[in-house]
């Protein structure tokens, strides 16, 4: 997005709509990131006042992302900004640093000093004033001026300037964020523990401006999912469905990035939870009678979406497909109906499991007492992943395990990406699923504690079924929640849309 695409505040403004979509890429006001910086400052100052562990002076310092080449070649991979840096500064370009003066609240960007031939190969070398105006910061310097600038701005000259650097564990990836590094760091006092938990917590609850972008990413993705449904045909390849989605979100939505690698699984591939990676690259041919599981989401101006639709390739649900699909849909709907502030996400996961088990029990696929199945964690055999995750600038947004929260150890529950109670302003995915995975079914069928619950004759029919997942992005409101995703969900809605009916359906 060029400098002309940035506004100075207010709601997302709309450009002229493209001809083949009901949507228009919105102009994202940069004061969204100004507000994020203000939120961090308020949180830090509150922390200092409450703990009196540190004086409220010094600088927050983050290092932005660096451009990467493909191994030893000069091929530049498409750059995407580091997420914490994007949250605070909204900077698209690589090689920047950003600082916030805790005592004055002033924001400072440090831009890379580019070589003269940059203008020949990569475009205009922009003056520092461009970044000051475009990113709505107070001061801009070059990166090689970072040490001197921060020393000069620090008011207590008799002390070493204090830097709060970002360093902490991402509980989804088990990777650590990397603190900023620069020449002359030995001249500063370094704090590596304060910033990460506070900044992570800032990202958990979304502002109205953030919600507007996430809603747009959902609108684009929902529209693209419908295009995939309408164009899916027996004999196509899974990657062609991926291509339809990617084309739509970029052509009509202005979304150059996806939130994650597309999962375009059909037939038995839909039982592979994270299908679509390099060793399973969405390349199976679509067969008559197969179910499709399409897990794809667009990213716009750093903020993402995460949507899964499941549908029959030939456009008509069989009886067995209807049974499994409706079990998952009922779980999806029960959870969303129960969501509100104060509700435990662990309990929502258990509600989804119980709903699916009750449906399978009704059809004789499993047998026995559902409460006993829950106690033996049979639900995790059919839904081994967690119910959902926080969503924002990252698909798996951080903050799922705040300090003091422990990950459960039981099957299924240990896969939860958060165990928090819901709060107003959270955006969280609701993505129950039911899969027939031999690697889980065989040991569960041989385990004396769980074998009695499985009807092996019925299960044999579903051996190559794959799985169903239904995923929506849901915002927690003061009194309940709002589903941000707008895709056909009922079996009859899906069949009608795949047959060419408009969406939303005309009653």
Automatic annotation (TrEMBL):
Enzyme Commission no: 3.4.13.9
Sorted alphabetically, the Gene Ontology BP terms of this entry are: proteolysis
Q: Which residues form a coiled coil?
A: none
Q: Which cofactor does it need?
A: Mn(2+)
Q: State if Ribosomal protein is listed as a keyword.
A: no
- Indicate the transmembrane segments per the record: none
**Cross-referenced InterPro entries, in alphabetical order?**
Aminopep_P_N, Creatin/AminoP/Spt16_N, Creatinase/aminopeptidase-like, Pept_M24, X-Pro_dipept-like
The record's keywords, sorted A to Z, are: Dipeptidase, Hydrolase, Manganese, Metal-binding, Metalloprotease, Protease
Domain Aminopeptidase P N-terminal per the UniProt entry, residue ranges: 28-174
Keyword Methyltransferase belongs to the record: no
Q: Where are the stretches annotated Disordered?
A: 1-28
Recorded GO molecular functions are: manganese ion binding; metalloaminopeptidase activity; proline dipeptidase activity
Kindly state which reaction or reactions the protein catalyses. Xaa-L-Pro dipeptide + H2O = an L-alpha-amino acid + L-proline
Name the residue ranges with Low complexity bias. 12-25
Task: Please give the subunit comment from the record.
Answer: Homodimer.
Recorded family membership: Belongs to the peptidase M24B family. Eukaryotic-type prolidase subfamily.
Q: What is this protein called?
A: Xaa-Pro dipeptidase
Q: Which organism is it from?
A: Rhynchospora pubera
């Amino acid at each position: 997005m060029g400098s002309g695409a940035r506004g100075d505040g207010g709601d997302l403004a709309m450009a002229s709509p493209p001809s083949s979509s009901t949507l228009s890429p919105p102009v994202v006001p940069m004061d969204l990131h100004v507000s994020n910086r203000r939120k961090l400052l308020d949180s830090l100052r509150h922390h200092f006042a409450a703990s009196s562990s540190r004086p409220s002076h010094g600088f927050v310092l983050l290092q932005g992302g660096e451009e990467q080449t493909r191994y030893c070649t000069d091929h530049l991979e498409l750059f995407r900004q580091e997420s914490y840096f994007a949250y605070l500064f909204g900077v698209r370009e690589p090689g920047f640093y950003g600082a916030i003066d805790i005592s004055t609240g002033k924001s400072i960007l440090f831009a890379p000093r580019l070589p003269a031939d940059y203008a020949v190969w990569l475009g205009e070398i922009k003056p520092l004033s461009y970044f000051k105006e475009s990113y709505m910061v107070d001061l801009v310097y070059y990166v090689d001026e970072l040490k001197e600038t921060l020393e000069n701005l620090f008011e207590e000259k008799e002390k070493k300037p204090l830097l709060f650097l970002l360093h902490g564990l991402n509980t989804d990836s088990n990777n650590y964020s990397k603190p900023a590094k620069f020449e002359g760091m030995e001249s500063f006092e370094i704090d590596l523990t304060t910033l990460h938990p506070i900044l992570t917590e800032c990202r958990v609850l979304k502002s109205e401006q953030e919600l507007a972008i996430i809603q747009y990413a959902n609108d684009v993705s929902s529209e693209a999912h419908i295009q995939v449904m309408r164009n899916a045909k027996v004999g196509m390849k899974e990657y062609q469905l991926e291509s339809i989605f990617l084309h739509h979100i970029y052509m009509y939505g202005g979304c150059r990035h996806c939130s994650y690698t597309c999962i375009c699984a059909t037939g038995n591939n839909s039982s592979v939870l994270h299908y679509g990676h390099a060793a399973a690259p969405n390349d199976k041919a679509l067969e008559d009678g197969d179910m499709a599981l399409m897990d794809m989401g667009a990213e716009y101006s750093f903020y993402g979406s995460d949507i899964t639709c499941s549908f029959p390739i030939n456009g008509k649900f069989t009886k067995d497909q209807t049974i499994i699909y409706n079990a998952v849909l009922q779980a999806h709907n029960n959870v969303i109906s129960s969501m509100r502030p104060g509700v435990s996400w662990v309990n929502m996961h258990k509600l989804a499991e119980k709903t699916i088990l009750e449906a399978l029990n009704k059809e004789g696929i499993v047998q026995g007492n559902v409460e006993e199945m829950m106690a033996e964690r049979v639900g995790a055999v059919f839904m081994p992943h967690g119910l959902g995750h926080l969503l924002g600038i990252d698909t798996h947004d951080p903050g799922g395990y705040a300090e003091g929260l422990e990950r459960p150890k039981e099957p299924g529950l240990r896969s939860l990406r958060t165990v928090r109670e819901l709060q107003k302003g959270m955006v969280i995915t609701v993505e129950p699923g039911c899969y027939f995975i031999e690697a889980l079914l065989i040991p569960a069928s041989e385990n004396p504690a769980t074998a009695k619950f499985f009807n092996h004759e019925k299960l044999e029919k579903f051996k190559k079924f794959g799985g169903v997942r239904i995923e929506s992005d849901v915002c927690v409101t003061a009194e309940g929640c709002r589903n941000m995703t707008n895709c056909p969900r009922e079996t009859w809605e899906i069949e009608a849309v795949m047959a060419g009916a408009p969406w939303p359906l005309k009653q």
